[in-house]
Design brief:
Layout (H helix, E strand, L loop, with lengths): L6 H4 L27 E7 L19 E8 L2
Amino acid sequence: AQRDGQPAGWLRPTSSWAAGEVVEDHYALDLPEDLPAGDYAVVVGLYLPADGSRVPTAAGNDALTFGPLFVTQ
């Protein structure tokens, strides 16, 4: 499953962020009904709309990975 969108309901594009500012955001992710129960990771990344390239993290990766998260049916 995937979801794209600008932070804060399209109200806070990254171009409006100040250095060090924390922008809290919430997303729901609709999972397929036939998704098997099990452990999954959530991968989060930012990309440049102009060319689709990923913005590197402070560690030099192109995304952050959270999990495992256990999904039940």
